[in-house]
Amino acid sequence: MNSSYKLLKPIFLQRTLYYMRGRMSRSHKNRMSFKLDCLLDKVTQKSERQNERPASYLNIAFTGFHDDKLEGVCGDVARVETFIVKMCHKKRKESSAPLMQVSVGTQDVNINPSEGEGGGGCGRNACLSIPTHNFTSSNGHQVKSYVLVFRVSLVHDQENAGEPVVKRRRVGRSASQDSQDSNIPLISTNAINGDSHGGVGSTYAGELVMFDRHGRCLLTPGQYELMLELQAGETTQLCKSSPKKNASWESIDTLKFDGIFNNIPVLKFTLNWNSENSTSVIERPRLRPLKPLDVVLANSASTKPKPQGVASPEAPQLVLYQFVYNNNSRQQTEARRDFHCPWCSLNCMALYSLLKHLKLCHARFTFTYVPHPKGARIDVALNECYDGSYAGNPQDLVAMPAGFAFSRSGPTRRTPTTSVLVCRPKRPKPSLSEFLEQDDDFDLPRSYILGHNRLYHHTMTCLPIQPHELDEDSEGEHDSEWVRQKTQMMIDEFSDVNEGEKELMKMWNLHVMKYNFVGDSQIPLACSMFLESHGTELLRKSLYRNFVLHMVSLHDFGLIGTGVVYKCILHLQNKMQDPSVQKQLAASWEEQRRSSKKLFSSYNGSSSSFVSPVKQESTCSSATSNGLTEESKSSPTKSK
Amino acid sequence: MDDGSIKILQCYSDPDPEENFYTVAWSYDTETGRPILAAAGSRGVIRIFSLATMQCVKHFIGHGNAINELKFHPRDPNLLLSVSKDHALRMWNIRTDILVATFGGVEAHRDEVLSTDIDVEGTCIVSCGMDHSLKIWKLTTDIMLSTINQSYTFNPSRAVRPFPTVQQNFPDFSTRDIHRNYVDCVRWLGRFILSKSCENTIVCWKPGLLNQTELKHNDTNVTIIHKFDYKECEIWFMRFSLDYWQKVLAVGNQQGRTYVWDLDISDPAQARCSTLTHPKCVAPIRQTAFSRKGNILITVCDDATIWRWDRVAQQ
């Protein structure tokens, strides 16, 4: 198989190959002592260990909620609820990536505080501390990222605090707003352009993604201004909408970022990571370099393969590749210091594994190992015996239209083919000697599947036998139409046989070919079946005497006994009792008498070229027939 | 082109470099009306090209050897007839990809089948070959008509048995009395047949006696109507052609000379012959073809040259 194709669409794992033990980092040594009950303990211990770290906190100090559209509400307070949304990787059988949302705190924050008030403002408690163990990957689900969602709702209205909801004085300028909730459509793209309705009861939401694709923490300590969007009603939506749906084009004429935030509701806060839980106002954020959380990284780091078994990773040696080609007249050499395959860059960890990998996965070359003082030399040559023929289902190649079987237009019936997936033959002990120069290659890889994946063809048309035609064997040459036609034509060509005889023999031959009588012992049966199916027809064509002659011939050759002859003729005579048959017989007999009389009288006394019609009375003992004459018309000699 | 030149429009190359195309035939896709071209040759594979998409859309395998000629049914553009070195003729329905009939076997050709033609009404096929014989096969028998119909409705995925391809072993007429060598080209001329061998003659003849209208299977009579003689054409696989209206006949010889007869006369004995020559045209002319109106004749030679001859109006 093509090695580059395997890179794109691998069908097996390298670490499970028997010669690649170096890549298998798991061991089964714990299986002996494993007990199911201890699973829970293991997990709780692990999470406790994490909690034992010096507690770190993510501290957020809200400084204010700014929205230019909210007039005259300086000094009012909005409620900020913070959620952590955990986005996990989708497992194979789940329909969508799991999302979990947890609320971690609610704070009150000033609306449109003036600049000079510093962080926190107004002395209110606007700080939030989130312990970092909230941001760990949990059991069962691998976490993609965490997102902090801030939901700001304008419910606090000092003036309207005591009055019922309906009567509350509107805070915003939009006159069309009826009630405090859910009639406000979500205008996602327009919100940024400043066309939103605002006011009491509206909810704004903003998101802050915590970790990027590589698990690095994006939340550097500092001051943040988060753009918020108006949300419809009180639905607690999870941030499910794809970024594409809420995306919009923004033209950046002057690339001044200051102006962007002028018309958009913004939540301002200060963020830092601290080892202590802080509920007080932080005055000055401490800048720290971007550093990934240990917790996150510890789970996603790939473990290094540990040396095990046969192919223990060896000290880096010199591996010299010598490619000899063009009938040994040219060569190309390459030297490497590790055990990576030069073609597919696979780290084989050991010399034996490397050689085995080269021989099996890059079978278009032959590799011969020659020990070298500094390491190893591998002679590479083109493999003349490589069989690159198609090894799949041959039906797929001939299906019409071309390539149909490889398309995905629906299920089609296919012929069963065999592919070997796992094979565990007895193997010799791995040693480097199998790669040494071979004098005779008795070791050619033989296919394990012999003669199963075959394409058969119809005999007459040479067209491939389709899978749905496999049920019935259509190749049997039994009673072909052309054979029947040919025998009739050949019998007709006889020049020295009278018409009646020809007709009878045609009927008899067709009968025998149809039922395929092959043995002498079957002839009595053939005779009786013949009479069953063709008896009446015989009589109608006036072939009685011809049939009798035929019976006699069969008897003469010992194929039937006298009893059979007797029975058959009796049977035929019984058929003659049928009145309709009798009428026909009588009519044809009359006709023949008349025509032969005419001939006789006109040629009376003439030359010897005259052929006299033969008239014979039937002499059957139990005959009720009267005067059956044999059909005899002289037939002209036929030219071929 | 109108200015008298030739312009190449499309070119197709078989992926197998060993392929040699011997024959082509034009038809059209009955669903889209677009022209299609069928081509076949030494590999025994029929390829169908869609000229609009410039792709080979179908191929048909099954002939046991090279294919010498392809012909489409004049009334049904989906029925394609192919004759082969494997001694047989095959009729394919190229719309449904079904082999409708094979014409071969005990009384069929005994050597390579070299040429074939279907008459203008689509009732009879005439075929000829290396066994010196010409055979006529009727397409109007019950079994043929019903199988052709069935080939349009047959659904392979729902069928239990393979398609019941007609295996026609017996021609409706056969003769070896016209020529004494390989018969390498045959065409219908109404109810008459034009055929040639490598004896420097195109023979116009009919099966049976002169006034006989029906075909008899073992009829030994043939009536020769006329012979068109020419010179220096003693190699085989040299084809003549008729124009669409069957008024002009043209054949080339092995020296590069083309003979043209005007057939639009009542007495065949008075058919006049013109010869077309050019000092540079000296290689054997394998095939000739007329344009639809009959005023342009194309001949092709063994030295890979193509010659265009325009009919000049008589003054």
TrEMBL record, chain A:
Q: Name one GO cellular component term.
A: ESC/E(Z) complex
Q: Which domain of life is it from?
A: Eukaryota
User: Low complexity compositional bias: what residue ranges?
Assistant: 600-618
Q: Name one GO biological process term.
A: chromatin organization
Compositional bias (Polar residues): 174-190, 619-628
Residue span(s) of domain Polycomb protein SUZ12-like zinc finger = 318-385
Domain Polycomb protein VEFS-Box, residue spans: 446-562
Asked whether the UniProt record includes Transcription among its keywords, one would answer yes
Pfam family membership, one: Zn_SUZ12
**Which UniProt key words apply to this protein?**
Chromatin regulator, Metal-binding, Transcription, Transcription regulation, Zinc, Zinc-finger
Q: Which GO terms describe its molecular function?
A: chromatin DNA binding; zinc ion binding
Where are the stretches annotated Disordered? 165-190, 600-640
Its family remark reads: Belongs to the VEFS (VRN2-EMF2-FIS2-SU(Z)12) family.
Q: Give the protein's recorded name.
A: Polycomb protein VEFS-Box domain-containing protein
**Organism expressing this protein natively:** Cherax quadricarinatus
UniProtKB/TrEMBL annotation, chain B:
Q: Which UniProt keywords apply?
A: Nucleus, Repeat, Repressor, Transcription, Transcription regulation, WD repeat
Positions of the WD repeats? 60-102, 106-147
Q: Which lineage? A: Eukaryota, Metazoa, Ecdysozoa, Arthropoda, Crustacea
Q: What Pfam family is a match for this entry?
A: WD40
**Name the UniProt record assigns to this protein:** Polycomb protein esc
Matching entries from Gene3D superfamilies are given as:
YVTN repeat-like/Quinoprotein amine dehydrogenase
Main localization of the protein?
Answer: nucleus
Per its UniProt record, what InterPro entries does this chain match?
Answer: PcG_WD-repeat, WD40/YVTN_repeat-like_dom_sf, WD40_repeat_CS, WD40_repeat_dom_sf, WD40_rpt
The UniProt record lists the keyword Metal-binding: no
PROSITE patterns recorded for this chain?
A: WD_REPEATS_1, WD_REPEATS_2, WD_REPEATS_REGION
Assigned GO CC terms = nucleus
Per the record's keyword annotation, is Lipid biosynthesis included, yes or no?
A: no
Compartments (UniProt record): Nucleus
Write out the similarity annotation: Belongs to the WD repeat ESC family.
| Domain of life, source organism | Eukaryota
Organism of origin is Cherax quadricarinatus
